[in-house]
Design brief:
Helices cover 60% and strands 0% of the residues. The chain contains 16 helices and no strands.
């Protein structure tokens, strides 16, 4: 037996009867010879970590645009926190950690620069619309590897596609990531809001603190324990009623006080205008796109989609530099 086959047998012997087994994957869009060392979900995780879109996450906004300080979350640190939460839950429930990790590391690959402000701008200006979960799937299926994609398994692509609240993942591992994403951003966005002086812990309503704790760390710990104990031995991944209610109340509290707070979001209008301007520019100057995007056009892709692919893939820093190069006289930047 190969090392991979031994690992697949270990999964059958150890993992929960509800877990996804590597040997039983629905497979890839294109046939590939199996690796003799790595099961398919481990291979997918490795491909995601080594792809360009993953590296760009380090310079994409999570919530706070260009914050003054080194400890605010970026889209990359958010992704790593989602992955860690998801692996902790999966390990406790004896689900497939490598599938969970692959989904978690890939779930935001299609996110725009400037966080949800960039996503709103492209969704508004592009007639085809723009949604980061769909773009994440497009990134791994089409955009990476110069148009060849990463050729990931069905289970990983399904989890990436369905990681948002409205999603319905077809695996328990996908459901783990879906919940882990929420508890990660509730945890770290509150932590960053306190760091920014926008909120104090005492601002969180007492009815929420009584259920899930009075610090970001307490809440994260409470969420994870509740998911594990509520889901143990079940063919589902869920929270208990009181904790789920408190989580939704916390999300609503964050929405009012952080995500739509004029103080926290004062610069987002500028970011949206910048994204719209770049989209309009490249629609008029489509031939200035890099070769890999021009190849998509030659293969019949709509130019609106390809311009979204290019502008949406930018990092914050590259988007600003591109805007400056196009619209700001060089003498003004000295």
């Amino acid at each position: 037996m190969t090392i991979r086959e031994n690992l697949e047998q270990w999964e059958k012997n150890y993992l929960s009867i509800y877990a996804s087994h590597s040997a039983e994957s629905k497979g890839r869009q294109r046939f590939e010879k199996q690796c003799d060392i790595r099961p398919v979900f481990q291979r997918d995780r490795d491909r995601i970590i080594h792809c360009k879109a993953f590296r760009r996450l380090k310079d994409k906004t999570q919530v706070f645009l260009t914050p003054e300080g080194d400890h605010y979350r970026t889209r990359l640190t958010h992704t790593l926190e989602v992955s860690q939460n998801a692996r902790t839950i999966a390990k406790a429930l004896r689900l497939n950690e490598e599938l969970v990790e692959a989904i978690a590391l890939g779930h935001d690959l299609g996110h725009t620069p400037f966080g949800h402000a960039g996503e709103r701008a492209l969704n508004k200006i592009c007639p085809l619309g723009f949604e980061h979960s769909l773009q994440s799937v497009r990134t791994v299926e089409r955009l990476e590897k110069n148009g060849r994609g990463l050729n990931l398994t069905y289970e990983v692509r399904d989890g990436i596609l369905n990681h948002q609240t409205i999603g319905k993942p077809h695996t328990l591992e996908g459901k783990v990531v879906r919940l882990s994403d929420k508890i990660a951003y509730i945890h770290h966005d509150m932590d960053d809001a306190v760091r920014a002086g926008i909120l104090k812990e005492s601002d969180v309503p007492g009815e929420i603190r009584e259920v899930i704790g009075s610090t970001p760390g307490d809440r994260l710990d409470h969420f994870i324990h509740d998911i594990v104990t509520t889901s143990m031995g079940k063919n589902d991944v869920l929270m208990s009623g009181p904790v789920e209610k408190a989580m939704m109340q916390m999300r609503n509290f964050m929405s009012v006080n952080v995500y739509h707070n004029p103080l926290a979001k004062s610069e987002e209008g500028k970011a949206e205008k910048l994204m719209e301007t770049l989209y309009e520019h490249f629609m008029k100057h489509i031939d200035s796109l890099p070769e890999e995007f021009l190849n998509l056009l030659s293969e019949g892709e709509a130019k609106e989609q390809v311009v979204c692919d290019y502008v949406g893939a930018m990092t914050d820093r590259f988007a600003i530099a591109t805007y400056n190069e196009i619209y700001i006289p060089k003498s003004w930047t000295l």
